[in-house]
């Protein structure tokens, strides 16, 4: 059995004594931001003396970027710029979570702040009312790095049944198949309470692997809501004493990797005859496959190379109801001749701002603007 953290053994009853104390008119606001790795999240909390009603009521703040891989110690102050606000499911309303952009000392975006450039691209195509939905896969581990629920000195049953040839853990039910359902359900509720646009969840192909979906979200909202959903996942796992990893290939061998399939739909795709717009977008994506792979994980495509997930990283393919292709048109969409398409290539640890920015730049702007500009 995987090891859990010492903090998870602390008395929750004692904690609740303090959490239930009244706080008057004050409000705890937790600022959340992406650190210098482009994958990790950081947070810190301050007191406001009245409940903020909108994001405009949240003041800018700062932090020491030398502690988060974002600055040198000799010039380390970084700015936190609040961009969206959520209810805090851990300390409860009126307390808030605030997701922030990070600016450097000269107020230029930090190297891992891709939100600013993504926002500019989304503004340029706002008449298309582009919707996204992202399917975030993750794996539960003990603090020792061993998959949660796996035998200490062995492996669970293979993910493909020897008798039927079918996946046995995907969307599974039962203690012998589903590891960590309590964590998944608590995360789901935390997202709903906070106001994150979570769409659903299910067990995935590898034991201790799960998925949640966020969306539909329009434009820049996609990145905001997925990053906050990730923060909530890490905090829920902290309470249970386990780790949620977004590593695209957490286990070597014949075990599935983890991705973040991205669903895309413009206003034109959703209207009658929208299938032609879907096919046009796929054609554009086929011509920039390598460039998209490069930005679909934070390591220039290297995570896609080692990920044993859906589709090949080194070639482009598309098909109807083909979940082994780079791009899939769902069967219902093909039958109704309108709707959306699925991009299967983003890795689980992708930055949703760079992914959605690249898709918009290719499909709607016919440029490479989404790749590396700030």
Automatic annotation (TrEMBL):
Q: Record's superkingdom? A: Eukaryota
Query: Which stretches make up the GS catalytic domain?
Result: 114-374
A GO biological-process term: glutamine biosynthetic process
MF terms from GO for this chain are: ATP binding; glutamine synthetase activity
Keywords of the record, alphabetical order, are: ATP-binding, Cytoplasm, Ligase, Nucleotide-binding
What EC number(s) are associated with this protein in UniProt? 6.3.1.2
Similarity remark: Belongs to the glutamine synthetase family.
What Pfam families does the database record attribute to this sequence? Gln-synt_C (PF00120), Gln-synt_N (PF03951)
Q: Report the principal subcellular site.
A: cytoplasm
Q: Where is the GS beta-grasp domain?
A: 27-107
Compartments it resides in: Cytoplasm
Record PANTHER family: GLUTAMINE SYNTHETASE
One CC-aspect GO term: cytoplasm
Protein name per its UniProtKB record:
Glutamine synthetase
């Amino acid at each position: 059995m995987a090891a859990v953290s010492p903090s998870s053994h602390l008395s929750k009853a004692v904690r609740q004594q303090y959490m239930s104390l009244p706080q008057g008119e004050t409000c705890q606001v937790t600022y959340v931001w992406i650190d210098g790795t482009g994958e990790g999240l950081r947070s810190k909390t301050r007191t406001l003396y009245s409940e903020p009603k909108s994001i405009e009521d949240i003041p800018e703040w700062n932090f020491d970027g030398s502690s988060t891989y974002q600055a040198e110690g000799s010039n380390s102050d970084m700015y936190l710029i609040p961009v969206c606000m959520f209810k805090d499911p851990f300390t409860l309303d009126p307390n808030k979570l605030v997701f922030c952009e990070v600016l450097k000392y000269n107020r230029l975006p930090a190297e891992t702040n891709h939100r600013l450039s993504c926002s500019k691209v989304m503004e340029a195509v706002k008449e298309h009312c582009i919707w996204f939905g992202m399917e975030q896969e993750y794996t539960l581990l003990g603090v020792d790095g061993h998959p949660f629920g796996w035998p200490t000195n062995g492996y669970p049953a293979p993910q493909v049944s020897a008798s039927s040839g079918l996946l046995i853990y995907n969307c599974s039910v039962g203690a012998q198949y589903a590891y960590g359902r309590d964590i998944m359900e608590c995360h789901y509720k935390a997202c709903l309470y906070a106001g994150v646009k979570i769409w659903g969840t299910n067990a995935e192909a590898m034991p201790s692997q799960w998925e949640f979906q966020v969306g539909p979200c329009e434009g820049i909202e996609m990145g905001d809501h997925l990053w906050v959903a990730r923060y909530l996942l890490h905090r829920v796992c902290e309470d249970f004493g386990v780790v949620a990893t977004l590593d695209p290939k957490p286990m070597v061998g014949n075990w599935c990797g983890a991705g973040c399939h991205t669903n895309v739909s413009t206003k034109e795709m959703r209207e009658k005859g929208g299938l032609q717009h879907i096919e046009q977008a796929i054609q554009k994506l086929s011509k920039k496959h390598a460039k998209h792979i490069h930005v679909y994980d934070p390591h220039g495509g290297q995570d896609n190379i080692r990920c044993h997930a859906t589709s090949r990283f080194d070639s482009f393919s598309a098909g109807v109801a083909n979940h082994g292709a780079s791009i899939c048109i769902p069967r219902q969409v093909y039958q109704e001749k309108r709707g959306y398409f699925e991009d299967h290539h983003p890795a689980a640890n992708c930055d949703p701002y760079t992914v959605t920015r690249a898709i918009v730049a290719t499909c709607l702007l016919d440029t490479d603007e989404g790749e590396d500009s700030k």
